[in-house]
C-alpha cells in the first residue's frame, strides 16, 4: 500500500502534491491535538514529550479519560498545549460544550483566555472548524461563546464560578511561588476552593485535567493522590522528570534529558546547582520534599555533605583511614513495587559514617545479586547486614553460590525485625542529628536519599531508610579506623650531599648517633671498620 501511494504521488505535479499534503495536514489537525498544534502554532518545534502529552489530552477529548494529572518541569510547553491549544481544539470538536480554565491568578487567566480567543479567530482555525466560530458579542478575554452555544470561561484560583458549568475543567499551575507552597493556609485554601467551587461546576460525565509543576508534597496534586490511595477518584497520571529516572514513561535511559534541544543535561545541572536540591527535586523531578522532614530533618543532610572523590583520594593516600561496611534491603519484584537497595559506608577514627556508594533499582533478583557482588568486590567490606526473612531464605543460597563463583568473601550478618520501622531507625536518627552521618554531594545518590529520608515514615518508598536502619543496628559491632599519624621526621637523615658529609664527620668524631641505616653508612651499633682478620 505504501509503495502504491508513493507511485501515485510520484506521478502528480507539484501543485497537486501540495494540495494532497495540505489535505492530510488539515485532516490530522481536525483529529488530534498534536496535529492541531502543528497546524495552528507557527514555529512549533515539537519534541517527543509534546506528542506524549497531546496523546494523553486526546484521550480526554474523546472521553476515554475523565481524570488526567500531568506533572512536569517549568518551561517545557505544558501551558501552551493544555491551556491555550486544548480549549480551542476541544471547542472546535465540541462547539456546544462548555470549558472552564483556572490558574493561580486572574491576570494570568486573562492571558490564557485572550490567546484562546485569538486562536479561534484565526483563519487556520475556522477553516478546520467552520461551525465553531465565535459569536459576534465575544469581546471579553476571560469569557466568550461560540455561535452555537458553547462557552469558554477562565478565572483565577479562589474566584467564584456561580452560574458556570464545564464539560471540560482545566487547572493549570494552582501555585505560583515557594511562599504560597509553604503556606498550609494557602494550600488549604486551594484545596477547599477545588472541592466546594470548581468541582461543583462539572457537568455529568465531564472531564478534569490538572496540569502543574509540583511544589510541595501536600499541594493539590499530592492531596488528590492521597485521596486516590484512600479509595477516592482514580487519576491517570503522566509524570515527566527533567532528568529520567527508572520506569520513565517515555522509555528514556536514566539520566537522559526530557528536552535535550532546549535543556541538555549540562544546562539542567547548572539549574540544579543554582536552585538547590529541594527546588530541583520538586519543580524539575516532580518529587517534592517536605520542608523539614518528620523523622529525618532536611538540614541534617544538607549541612553534612562531602566530596566523595576528594575523600577517596585522602583515603588512598593514607590520610583518611576508614573501615568499610555494607547493608542491603532486598526486594524480589521487578518493574514496580519495592526497590532493592545496597548501601556501602566508611567509618573513620572519630566514628563518623560516610555514605560511599549506593545501588538502588526495581529489578530481577539476578540483577541485584550481581550488583551486590560487584560492590563486595569493589569495597571489600568487613561485614554486610541483611534483613532476615523469607526473601533471604529464598535467595540466600543463590547469593552464596555467586560469591563462591566470583571468589568473593564477606561476613554477612542476618538481622531480625523485632520492632516497627521508625523504632528500628532510631539509632540512625540519633547519629544524623549529631552530624555523625555524612552524605555525598553527588546528586545521583543524594536526591533519592533526601527524597526518601525526608518523607519517612509517610512516604511511598522507604527502602533506603531500611538499609540505613540495618547499618544502625550493626553500629555496636563496628570498629573505628585508626587515627592518621604523620610519619616522624628523622633529623639524622641527610637530604643533601653537604648534610651527609657533615653527618659523616660528626659520626667519626663521636658527635652523632645513628638511629637507622643510611646509604653508605653502617647500621646502628656496627663499627665503621671491619676488625682485622686473624691470621692463623
Descriptive report:
The protein is α/β, with parallel strands linked by helices. It folds into 4 domains: 1-26, no CATH class; 32-240, P-loop containing nucleotide triphosphate hydrolases (Rossmann fold); 298-477, Nucleotidyltransferase, domain 5, CATH 3.30.420; 491-526, no CATH class. It has helices spanning 2-10, 14-31, 33-40, 48-61, 78-93, 106-121, 123-128, 178-181, 184-198, 220-229, 265-284, 298-302, 308-316, 365-379, 390-405, 421-424, 426-433, 443-455, 463-473, 497-508, and strands at 67-71, 98-103, 143-145, 151-156, 166-172, 202-212, 236-239, 305-306, 323-329, 340-347, 353-361, 383-387, 411-415, 437-440. The strands form 2 sheets. A 7-stranded mixed beta sheet has the order 3-4-2-5-6-1-7. It has a 7-stranded mixed beta sheet with strand order 8-14-11-10-9-12-13, sandwiched between helices. Helix 15 links the parallel strand 12 (383-387) and strand 13 (411-415). The termini are far apart. 34% of the residues are buried.
Oligomeric state of the chains in view: single chain
Shape assignment? elongated
Q: How far do the termini sit from each other?
A: 116 Å
- Taking all residues together, what is the mean pLDDT? 87
Number of β-strand runs = 14
Rg, nearest Å = 34 Å
Q: Strand fraction band?
A: 15-25%
* CATH topology-level fold name of the largest domain: Rossmann fold
Q: For this structure, what is the CATH homologous superfamily of the largest domain?
A: P-loop containing nucleotide triphosphate hydrolases
Main beta-sheet annotation: 7 strands, mixed
- Number of separate domains: 4
CATH architecture term of the largest domain: 3-Layer(aba) Sandwich
> Strand order across the biggest sheet?
3-4-2-5-6-1-7
Ranges with pLDDT <50 over ≥5 residues?
512-536
The CATH C-level name of the largest domain is Alpha Beta
Structural class: alpha/beta
Amount of helix: 40-55%
Question: Treating each run of at least 4 consecutive H or I residues as one helix, how many helices?
Answer: 20
Amino acid at each position: 500500500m505504501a509503495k502504491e501511494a508513493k507511485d501515485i504521488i510520484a506521478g502528480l505535479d507539484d501543485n497537486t502534491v501540495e494540495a494532497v499534503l495540505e489535505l492530510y495536514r488539515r485532516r490530522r489537525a481536525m483529529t488530534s491535538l498534536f496535529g492541531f498544534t502543528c497546524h495552528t502554532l507557527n514555529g512549533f518545534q515539537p519534541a517527543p514529550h509534546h506528542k506524549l502529552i497531546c496523546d494523553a489530552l486526546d484521550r480526554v477529548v474523546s472521553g476515554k479519560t475523565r481524570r488526567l494529572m500531568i506533572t512536569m518541569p517549568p518551561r517545557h510547553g505544558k501551558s501552551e498545549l493544555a491551556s491555550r491549544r486544548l480549549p480551542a481544539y476541544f471547542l472546535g470538536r465540541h462547539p456546544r460544550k462548555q470549558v472552564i480554565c483556572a490558574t493561580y491568578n486572574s491576570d494570568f487567566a486573562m492571558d490564557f483566555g485572550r490567546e484562546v480567543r485569538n486562536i479561534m479567530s484565526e483563519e487556520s482555525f475556522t477553516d478546520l472548524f467552520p461551525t465553531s466560530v465565535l459569536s459576534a458579542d465575544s469581546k471579553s478575554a476571560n469569557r466568550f461563546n461560540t455561535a452555537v452555544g458553547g462557552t469558554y470561561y477562565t478565572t483565577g484560583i479562589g474566584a467564584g464560578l456561580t452560574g458556570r458549568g464545564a464539560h471540560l475543567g482545566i487547572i493549570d499551575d494552582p501555585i505560583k511561588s515557594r511562599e504560597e507552597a509553604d503556606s498550609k493556609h494557602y494550600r488549604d485554601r486551594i484545596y477547599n476552593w477545588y472541592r466546594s467551587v470548581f468541582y461543583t461546576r462539572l457537568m455529568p460525565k465531564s472531564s478534569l485535567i490538572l496540569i502543574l509543576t509540583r511544589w510541595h508534597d501536600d499541594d493539590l496534586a499530592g492531596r488528590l493522590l492521597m485521596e486516590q490511595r484512600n479509595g477516592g477518584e482514580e487519576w491517570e497520571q503522566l509524570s515527566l522528570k527533567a532528568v529520567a529516572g527508572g520506569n520513565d514513561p517515555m522509555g528514556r535511559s536514566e539520566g537522559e534529558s526530557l528536552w535535550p534541544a532546549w535543556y541538555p543535561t549540562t544546562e539542567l545541572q547548572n539549574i540544579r546547582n543554582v536552585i538547590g536540591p529541594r527546588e530541583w527535586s520538586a519543580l524539575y523531578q516532580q518529587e517534592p520534599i517536605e520542608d523539614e522532614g518528620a523523622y529525618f530533618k532536611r538540614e541534617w543532610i544538607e549541612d553534612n555533605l562531602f566530596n566523595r572523590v576528594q575523600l577517596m583520594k585522602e583515603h588512598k593516600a593514607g590520610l583518611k583511614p576508614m573501615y568499610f561496611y555494607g547493608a542491603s534491603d532486598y526486594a524480589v519484584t521487578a518493574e514496580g513495587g519495592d526497590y532493592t537497595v545496597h548501601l556501602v559506608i566508611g567509618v573513620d577514627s572519630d566514628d563518623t559514617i560516610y555514605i560511599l556508594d549506593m545501588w538502588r533499582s526495581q529489578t530481577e533478583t539476578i540483577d541485584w545479586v550481581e550488583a551486590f557482588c560487584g560492590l563486595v568486590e569493589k569495597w571489600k567490606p568487613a561485614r554486610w547486614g541483611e534483613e532476615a526473612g523469607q526473601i533471604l531464605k529464598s535467595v540466600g543460597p543463590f547469593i552464596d553460590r555467586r560469591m563462591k563463583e566470583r571468589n568473593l568473601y564477606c561476613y554477612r550478618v542476618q538481622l531480625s525485625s523485632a520492632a516497627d520501622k521508625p523504632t528500628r531507625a532510631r539509632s540512625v536518627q540519633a547519629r544524623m542529628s549529631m552530624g555523625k552521618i555524612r552524605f555525598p554531594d553527588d546528586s545521583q545518590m543524594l536526591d533519592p536519599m533526601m527524597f526518601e529520608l525526608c518523607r519517612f515514615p509517610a512516604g511511598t518508598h522507604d527502602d533506603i531508610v531500611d538499609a540505613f536502619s540495618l547499618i544502625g543496628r550493626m553500629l555496636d559491632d563496628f570498629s573505628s579506623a585508626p587515627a592518621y599519624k604523620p610519619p616522624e621526621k628523622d633529623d639524622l637523615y641527610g637530604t643533601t650531599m653537604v648534610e651527609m658529609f657533615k653527618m659523616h664527620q660528626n659520626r667519626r668524631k663521636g658527635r652523632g648517633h645513628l638511629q637507622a641505616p643510611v646509604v653508605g653508612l653502617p647500621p646502628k651499633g656496627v663499627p665503621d671498620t671491619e676488625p682485622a682478620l686473624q691470621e692463623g
